[in-house]
Amino acid sequence: MSTASNGISLDHQIIVEIVGQSSSVLDLGCGDGELLSILVREKNVKAQGIEIDDKAIFDCVARGLSVFHDDIDSGLSDYEDKSFDFVILNQSFQQVKKPDTVLKEALRVGKKVIIGIPNFAHINARFQIFFRGRTPVTGALPYKWHDTPNLHFLSILDFVNYCKQRNITVEEAYFVGSGKKVALFPNLFAQTGIFLISGGSKPAAEDSPERNSNGQRR
Amino acid sequence: MVRRDKSVGIVETQYYTFANSPSELELESGEKFGPITLAYETYGKLNSEKSNAILIHHALTGDAHAAGFHPGDKDPGWWDNMVGPGKAFDTDYYFIICSNVLGGCKGSTGPASINPLTGRPYGLQFPVITIKDMVNAQRYLIDYLGIEKLLTVVGGSMGGMQALQWVVSYPDRVRSAIPVATTANHSPQQIAFNEVGRQAIMADPNWNEGDYYGKELPAKGLSVARMVGHITYMSDVSMSEKFGRKFKNTKQPFKFSPEFEVEGYLQYRGDNFIKRFDPNSYLYITKAIDYFDLANGTGLREVFKGITAPFLIIAFKSDWLYPAYQSQEIARACKLAGIDAIYCELNSNYGHDAFLVEVDEQAHLIKYFLKRVAGGLGVIDEHSV
Question: N or C: which end of chain A has fewer CB within 10 A?
Fold first, then answer.
């Protein structure tokens, strides 16, 4: 992920913009805690992470963060409904064993969920599959087939349809290419999609984000 | 390896006596008990705001001597690898206190102490004590030292129980808690192992209903209790690595004398234990551990309600005596009670003993957790840690 002049990557910048001042945030698969520590610094959030990798936990603790050594697939059931203003699943959703259960749980414990996914239908990926017959390796999907932590491969369109089917409201959608936001045909040109979602029981939103060509708040 | 250059150096045990008649300590049982002496050691300097004090709690057979050397000793205190200049509990910044528990036999009042009413050791006249009683006694010591609020309370195993009890009993007097390899309530399996130890002691004819002071000691019973204990402190892997199926060097005619190295080790540890531990103390303290149930019938989450102190909860993967699920229960209650908490399950082959020997990762977590807790109190130079 490319990095802007302030040292914060574009996907992190987008998430920092979404998250409200002094809100409570649960980051599922928080990794080394980089995003959470930016959120603490920039938005004074009450931060909690869940992470499975112990080395990453040591980094989180060194950053002064609170983190639970746990599996995202099972670590959410203890929380009460709407315990957090925001639940973040940045680049971790495609790595969980049961995405359905995890997203349902995330939407239960969080008032809103911010989810960042790598787009499997990016033009580079399509090119590699179609012309070269190889499993794609791109900026957002940097792993070879044999060492990838990703268990699920989805496109931006897949995710949008998925939300529709489950009456999940996509409140905001952002699309990131290499180092810049993508305005046109995000399912083709965006490496990453970042969505602010809520609900799960209410009727589906009428329009879908792939028509939202400017990537701005809708 | 012991590095004296990073040591707190020569240390001395101190004593504080309180609960003199008629202000005896009311025990959880309702009985009034006193006078009580607590043996304690301190390392580092208490700052003028008295905001840098950390109370370390020892486990079942530990004592107040957590760090440094007693004059003439070649071995340092039991947590010397964690306490000292530049270590996890950095004595350059923090004032560390460690006291021997009530009921102990290393300088604090316990069953081997002289009962002032009879002039003889208490033996089984000593009252039933609980983890809560140990903590209440420590509170007197902390009052005496003039400390209003402890920066953290920390301990492994039974020490972790005391740390948890401190937060629950005195939520306004602790800024944070570090329970390590511990539980919020003792499980039937844990009680069962303790009971085997107690039965071994009581089956020794020398035990004599606890009245053995000045006579032949129930050394064999205590030895067996210690052997069982040691087995539960290690792991299958650590025992395989340490002993394998190796035989001892000295071959003797077959008479069920120790042949395997593991047998020799356990017997050696068991037989030496009588030199430093009172069998009655072992009975009383294991019972206190067995009684420990922080939630006391209600939910742990209810007990944690209103606590603002952040927790650092550490468990070890190979610890089967205090399995990680017990630490996870504490972490879960923190989640539900809204307590700011870190939970980490560390890789180690050492079993329950890991909290004493697995230093690096534990030290990392504790060092940075303390840095955060101490932030804004002027305790540490924020840029140097």
Answer: C
Q: Are B135 and B141 in contact (CB under 8 A)?
A: no
Name the residue ranges covered by the structural domains of chain B.
Answer: 4-188+293-374, 192-286
The DSSP code sequence of B245-298 is: TPBPS----SSS---BHHHHHHHHHHHHHTTT--HHHHHHHHHHHHH-BTTTTS
C-alpha distance from A215 to closest chain B C-alpha (Å): 36
Q: What is this structure's pTM?
A: 0.92
Q: Are strands B311-316 and B177-180 parallel, antiparallel or unpaired?
A: parallel
**3-state secondary structure at position A182:** coil
Residues B109-152: pLDDT tens digits?
Answer: 999 999 999 999 999 999 999 999 999 999 999 999 999 999 99
Query: What integer pLDDT is reported at residue B67 of this predicted model?
Result: 98
pLDDT, tens digit (0-9, with 9 covering 90-100), for A78-97? 899 999 999 999 999 999 99
Question: CA–CA separation, B60 vs B282, rounded Å?
Answer: 8
* Residues β-bridged to residue A47: A25
Chain A residue with minimal CA distance to B333?
Answer: A78
Which residues 192-211 of B are in CB contact (within 8 Å) with A?
A: none
Contact B27, B121 (CB under 8 A): no
d(CA B167, CA B162): 9
A87 to chain B nearest CA, in Å? 15
CA of A120: how far to CAs of A93, A131, A159, A187, in Å? 13, 16, 11, 9
Closest CB from B328, B335, B346 relative to A54:
B346
Residues B183, B278 contacting (CB under 8 angstroms): no
The CATH number fitting domain B4-188+293-374, selected from 1.10.40.30, 3.40.50.300, 3.20.20.210, 3.40.50.1820: 3.40.50.1820
Beta bridge partners of B26: B32
User: What CATH code would you report for B192-286?
Assistant: 1.10.1740.110
From the list B343, B368, B369, the residue facing A69 with the nearest CB is B343
B65-97 burial string, b = 16+ CB within 10 Å, else e?
A: bbbbbeeeeeebbbbbbbbbeebbbbbebbbbb
- Scanning chain B, the segments in alpha helix (DSSP H) are 131-144, 158-169, 188-203, 219-233, 236-242, 261-273, 279-291, 300-304, 324-337, 354-357, 360-374
CA distance B1 to B357: 11
Q: Which residue has the tokens 């998430």?
A: A15
Q: Under 8 Å CB-to-CB from B164, ≥6 apart: which residues?
A: B177, B179, B182, B184, B294, B330
- Average pLDDT of chain B? 95
